[in-house]
């Protein structure tokens, strides 16, 4: 299995295809298992995903390293390991936080930013409740129960459900707790005006967790497009994989290497 090293910590990653590099970043626990249905993009792109530190098959490092900034440094280590000049970051939900931080801190390495069901800060009751449920699950040693819930909500495919459950069960409770706590209080709204690469946000029209956050991006993030997938909820990489893949292809082919002249599709 392939691994890269960040801060003396061995982290698991998967790499498929050739071409422009898409780095997919998951919420805590899911890791590579969240993006199995993005594998068809390998016919045009280099599709890369990884298990964050302390998650799934990756080592923990220090317990205090479950922070957004360390997560960002791990992504930088992965990009360096790949030997990529620039990458297109694809952050899903919570995974959009380190993606935004990376785009701000390493603009020279960021070709474009794709945010799927994501947000710059937790500011709704529903999203805060989801974070607190994650924190409570680590307190009570209920990662197995959390894994079953997340697996069921993400996919009907039993084999993928089993891989999601296993990845979460194998995650370190201390690092998961630190991730949720750090994310609950993280705020990237001040960074957004400084992210000038082409950007795309994708939301499900029925997403009760983060749809309202689209306005944060629209008001602060330059050079962005916003896409709604009608009738879909939060778990877009698995529940609307075909639509997500097509939107990413269109964005990269028509916008990343061209001037953006509109705000929405």
From TrEMBL:
Listed InterPro entries: AB_hydrolase, AB_hydrolase_1, AB_hydrolase_fold
Pfam families according to UniProt: Abhydrolase_1
All copies of domain AB hydrolase-1, residue ranges: 39-132
Name of the protein in question: Pimeloyl-ACP methyl ester carboxylesterase
Species for this entry: Marinococcus luteus
